[in-house]
Fold:
Amino acid sequence: MHELSKGVFNVKRVMVSSCLLIAIALIMSGCWNKRELNEFSIVAAVGIDKVEDDYEVSVQIVNPSEISSNKSNGGRMPFVLYHAKAETLFEAIRKLSTVTPRKPYFSHVGIMVLGEELAVEGIDQKLDLFMRDQEMRSNFLVVVSDQLPAKEILGILSPLEKIPANTMYNSLKNSSEVWASSSPTRFDELIKDLEKTNGNTVLTTIRINGDPSKGTSNANVEKTIPPAILYYSGLAVFKNGKMVGLLNEEESKGYTYIKDKIKSTATIIACPEGGNITTEVKSSKTKVKGEMANKKPRIKLDIQSNQTVAEVDCPINLEKKETIAELDKISSETLTTNITNTLDTIQNKYKADIFGFGEVIHRSNPEAWKKLEKDWEQIFPELEVQVKVDVKTKGLGTIINTIPKKQRE
Structure:
């Protein structure tokens, strides 16, 4: 019995070893359905435009040889822009195969630009294709082209980045960190907003400053002052999935405050005796509360903000506690005015609940919301919003007071 058991053990060991060798051989030989990297064209950015009854898809494709090498290969561009137009977006993307030498690969898309005409027509149903596509990741950013088609935005060369998509992506991220009039929106966040708020949301707008026709030439990267540059100008307002208008810079900042997305920004405050003080917002917290008052919905906004003095261009003594208290008061009043102006524009001009106030009422009083929900679009413009702002100055910089004017002269 002992010899028999030993023999069985040896047979099992041989079988296990054989299976392992076969598995390793299969792994080393590769997958049967593998596709080589040189079969694809890596897409860095996508643009979608509505052209009459068709959709035009533009793709910014990376030229790997120009990106990876230190030397230029015959002066070729680091990216190529391809376009295709068809009756549906799916057809247009497939039609790209007639102009691209390789199959477009969308897994590395960093930013999507939606043309203004498409945005005005409505974006909720148009993005269905990208939600279903398993090849695309959903963390790319989405912006709206203002005044020009998306394909023209994608063609502008950048002096500091070889791939324009990188410029657009990094600029949007950076501006949201320090300026607050732009609001980066990922594709998956946009889809959730459209579903949750019945299509009421915002997207950052991008424009071309300068001559668009010169922005696609080498002159745009060879001159110290480029003939054309891309910049983010504010926010586009969407109602029921359709773009209905734009917020200016200050209104865009107001929106960012209300949505509690402020990271840092600058604020200019008028001095009592003339001149200005510029402050840097270091932190801000917005609390939104919903309630029913006299059978009517009401929203309370409580904004707590901390700032430091960044620049002084007026005769003022910052060593006095009374001066700091006055600065805090003026700053609070300035921000309150900005918030109320933003609310007025959204409620009375666009009548779109882009803040999600309806959801706040729903959470605070589900029973009341059942009665309000069906008429919320008519209720929102008349909604009472109480605004409370408290700004505190926490720092004065490395010097307390500015150099007196006579001393400067």
User: Anything to note?
Assistant: The radius of gyration is 28 Å. The chain has 15 helices and 13 strands. Confidence is low (pLDDT under 50) at residues 1-9, 21-34, 403-409.
